[in-house]
Each structure stands twice: as structure tokens, then as C-alpha cells.
Amino acid sequence: MSLDFAKQTQGSSLDFSKDLGVDLSKSNIIINLNWGVPAGRSSVDLDSNLATIVGGQKVMVEKKTGGILGFGSKTVTVEEERGKRLKGYAYYGNKDACRSDGVKHHGDDLTGASAEGEFIEIDGSKIGADVTELVPSLASFSGDDFSSLPFAYMRVYVGTTTKIEKPLFEVDLTDVKRGTRSAIFGKLVRDGQSWKWVTDTRYFKSGSNNMLREESAKL
Does residue 211 sit in helix, strand or coil? Predict the structure, then answer.
């Protein structure tokens, strides 16, 4: 199979059913975030995240232990006037933060030396009917500027962490303004019975995961 990932540009969109021939409700989708380490460096620590957004509902977010960050056991309200709530996050650290919603993070790459990077798995058959958007993001925990990296990208495909069954699309993160240390790549939006990917990339100078949690709900 040719691993032909379509390049996504700012402002473009893809309908999973019509454009990609993929029924997300019946598919296993992988978001693979990978990056390189500049010459003379031994490590770069980036963190990948995935926010699940619920429209018009208040949702409880439970704080996890063992290095998992959270909002605590309370209702989190973001952009209240737009009727959106930040439901939860797939955090790094080999934990399932949103298992009931079919989202799993497969672990933290602390150095950038891994050949595969980090993986977020979405089991479309388990995504709750109340979830309206899925928003992936990346933060530079080590404070490295994205523009200084030899490569950095997000690839989305059907398959598993070890097998690409159908390449879908790729977002390149290297062509950014100097000083960028975190980014939101776009979002998966529920459109009736199908899902659409909307490329609305946003870059930030801060490498804070906390900041990205709030910004993810503003797209």
C-alpha cells in the first residue's frame, strides 16, 4: 500500500464519509504526532492532547492520579455563551482518560527519539452521541520552538498504532512563525450522521497544556 497522506492546508475541510470514504462511527482512527530532534540535542519533549467537546451540556471532569492532569471533580464551563463545555482530555502517560468516549492515549514520548512519536486512538463506535467535536493539540513541554525542529507533523489514518490500513491526511507543523511552542491543528466536527475535519490551525508562544484546554473550546 502506498502511504499517500493528503496535505491539509489552512481553512480546508474534509468530509470523512464523502471525501475519504470512511464511516468514523465504524472505524478505528489514529492520530499520530511525531517530531524530530535538532542536531546537537538529545531530546525534545512535546505533549499531544485531544479535547472532547460537548455542546450545550454541563459535564463532570474527574481528576486522575499518577501524573494525569485534570480540572478536578467539578463542572467546567468554557465559552458558556456558545453552549460548549470542555468534557475531557486524552492525557499522556499510558492512561485512558476518556475510555467511555472511545478515546485512548498510548503514551508519552519524552525525548522525540521514538521512531513513532505519540498516538491517540479514537474508537468511533464508542464516541458518545453527546460529543460534537474532537480537537487535537500539541504543546512543547520542554519549551522548544516548533520552527527549530527538523520535522513535526500530525498524521490521521484508519488502523492501529502498529498498522496503517488507510492513510487519510497530514498536517505539517514546521512552517510556523518563530516562537511557536503549541498548536491546535483543527477539529473533527460531527455533521449529522457523519464527521468532517476542519483545518483551523492555531499557534501559540506558550507551551502550556492548560492554555490549550481552554483554547480548544474556542474554535
Answer: helix
Please check the confidence at residue 5 and state whether its pLDDT lies above 80.
no
Using only C-alpha atoms, the chain has a radius of gyration, in whole angstroms, of 16
Q: Can you tell me the distance from the alpha carbon of 70 to that of 92, in angstroms, rounded to the nearest whole number?
A: 12
Q: Between β-strands 152-159 and 131-140, what pairing exists: parallel, antiparallel or unpaired? A: unpaired
| This model's pTM is above 0.85 | no
Element of type H or E holding 157? strand 152-159
Q: How far apart are CA 101 and CA 180, in angstroms?
A: 31
For residues 182 and 139, the answer to whether their CB atoms sit within 8 Å is: yes
- Examine the pLDDT at 158 and tell me if it is beyond 90: yes
Q: Could you tell me if 86 and 78 are in contact, meaning their C-beta atoms sit under 8 angstroms apart?
A: yes
What residue ranges do the domains of the chain occupy?
6-216
Superfamily of domain 6-216: sav2460 like domains (2.60.60.30)
Residue 59 contacts residue 88 (beta carbons within 8 Å): yes
The C-alpha cell at 19 is 471525501
Residue 67 confidence (pLDDT) above 80: no
**Bridge partners for 134 per DSSP:** 52, 188
